[in-house]
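Reminder to self: C-alpha cells first, then the designed residues, so the page reads top to bottom the way the pipeline ran.
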C-alpha cells in the first residue's frame, strides 16, 4: 500500500470520516439514523460513486488518542478491502487534541499494521479488493512523521512474517541468511553469523547444548549498525533476541496441543532483527548491535538430558533440570557476547515463559531491569 501526503484527496478516492461520540456535524445525521456507529474499530461504506465514504468509529471524542486513530484507520482499510478497493483518503482533523504529526503517525501505523495478512503460506490467499494507496489530506508538514511511521510499521510486519515462517523453512541457518539479506540492503548495517566451531572456540556451551539434539545446528547471528555521525561514541545499544526457530521442549517434551505455535519461539529474535533494520533505515545516530541466539530445541540421541551440566561462555556451569527451559540458556551466551562485544546498554527480547501471558494476557508485555532509569526510558519509548 502506497502512502501519500497531499493537500486534497485524489479523484476517485474513498474518503474516511472518523465518527466520534458526540459526532461531528458531518456525521451527526448518519449516527442519529443508526446507519453508522461511533463504536471503536467499527467501519462501514456509505453511499455510492463519487459520494461514497467510509465511516470509521473512534469512540468518545474526548478520549480519541493514538490507539483510537490506529484502530479507525485499520478498520477503514479492512472495509475498503472488503468492498470496492482502490484509494483511501483521510483528512487530518484539527479539532482533535492530537497534533497533525501524531494523527499522521497513528493513521499510517494503523493502516499498515491493520492490513497485515498472515496467510502468505496459503495456496489460496484471502480474497478481497486491492487497497492501492492511502492519502493523508493536510496542508501541514507531516512528511517526516509519515515516513518514520511507514518505516517502523513495515519492519514490524517483516517481524510478523518471520514469526509466521514454519520451522521447516526458518532453520537457524536460514535465519542467518535472512539477516544477511536484510543487512545487505541497508547502508551502515552489517551481518555475520558464528557456526559451531566458532561458538565452541568462544566457549558457548549453553547455546550449543540447546541445539545439540537437532539436525539443524545453532547459529549466533550478529548485526552491527555504524551511523555516519553517532551522537555518542561511548554508547552502543545492544539488542538481544531469543531465536528458537522451533521449541519442542526436547526431552522434557511439551504437550502436543498447540505445539505448532512453537515456531514462534523466535519472536524476540524477529523483533531484534526488524528493530535494528528500522533503526538503520531511519539512520538514527546511535551505534547499535543485535545478537540473535538461533537454535532448534529437539529430542534425539544427542540432545540435552535433565541432569546434564553445561558451561556457558562466561565460565559459569549450569545444571539442566528441565530441557524446556532452554531460553535462559541460549540468552546466557548471547547476552555475554553482546557485553563482550561492546554493548553498553542492553535490551533483551524473549518469549521466555508462558507464565507471562497467563499473568498479563495478550495486551501487555512483562519488563524487568537492573537499572531504574534505563527501564523508564524503555517504557516511555
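Designed residues (381 positions):
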Amino acid at each position: 500500500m502506497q502512502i501519500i501526503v497531499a493537500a486534497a484527496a485524489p479523484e476517485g478516492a474513498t474518503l474516511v470520516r472518523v465518527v466520534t461520540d458526540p459526532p461531528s456535524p458531518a456525521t451527526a445525521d448518519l449516527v442519529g439514523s443508526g446507519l453508522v456507529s461511533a463504536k471503536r474499530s467499527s467501519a462501514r461504506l456509505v453511499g455510492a460513486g463519487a459520494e461514497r465514504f467510509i465511516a470509521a468509529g473512534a469512540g468518545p471524542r474526548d478520549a480519541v488518542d493514538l490507539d483510537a486513530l490506529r484502530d479507525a484507520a485499520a478498520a477503514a482499510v479492512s472495509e475498503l478491502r472488503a468492498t470496492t478497493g482502490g484509494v483511501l483518503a483521510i483528512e487530518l482533523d484539527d479539532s482533535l487534541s492530537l497534533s497533525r504529526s501524531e494523527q499522521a503517525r497513528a493513521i499510517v501505523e494503523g493502516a499498515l499494521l491493520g492490513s497485515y495478512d498472515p496467510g502468505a503460506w496459503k495456496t489460496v490467499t484471502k480474497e478481497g479488493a486491492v487497497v492501492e494507496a492511502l492519502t493523508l489530506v493536510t496542508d501541514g508538514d507531516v512528511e517526516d512523521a509519515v515516513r518514520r511511521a511507514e518505516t517502523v510499521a513495515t519492519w514490524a510486519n517483516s517481524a510478523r512474517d518471520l514469526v509466521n515462517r514454519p520451522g521447516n523453512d526458518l532453520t537457524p541457518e536460514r535465519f542467518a541468511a535472512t539477516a544477511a539479506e536484510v543487512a545487505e540492503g541497508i547502508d551502515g548495517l552489517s551481518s555475520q553469523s558464528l557456526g559451531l566451531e566458532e561458538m565452541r572456540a568462544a566457549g558457548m556451551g549453553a547455546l550449543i547444548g540447546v541445539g545439540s539434539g537437532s539436525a539443524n545446528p545453532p547459529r549466533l547471528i550478529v548485526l552491527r549498525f555504524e551511523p555516519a555521525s553517532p551522537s555518542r561514541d561511548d554508547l552502543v545499544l545492544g539488542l538481544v533476541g531469543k531465536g528458537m526457530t522451533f521449541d519442542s521442549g526436547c526431552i522434557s517434551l511439551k504437550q502436543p496441543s498447540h505445539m505448532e505455535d512453537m515456531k514462534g519461539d523466535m519472536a524476540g529474535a524477529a523483533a531484534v532483527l526488524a528493530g535494528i533494520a528500522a533503526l538503520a533505515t531511519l539512520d538514527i545516530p546511535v551505534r547499535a548491535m543485535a545478537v540473535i541466539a538461533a537454535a532448534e530445541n529437539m529430542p534425539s540421541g544427542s540432545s540435552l538430558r535433565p541432569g546434564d551440566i553445561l558451561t556457558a561462555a562466561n565460565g559459569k556451569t549450569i545444571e539442566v533440570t528441565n530441557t524446556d527451559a532452554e531460553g535462559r540458556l541460549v540468552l546466557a551466551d548471547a547476552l555475554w557476547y553482546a557485553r563482550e562485544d561492546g554493548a553498553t546498554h542492553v535490551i533483551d527480547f524473549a518469549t521466555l515463559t508462558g507464565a507471562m501471558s497467563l499473568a498479563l494476557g495478550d495486551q501487555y508485555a512483562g519488563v524487568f531491569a537492573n537499572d531504574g532509569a534505563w527501564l523508564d526510558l524503555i517504557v516511555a519509548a
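The chain has a mean pLDDT of 95.
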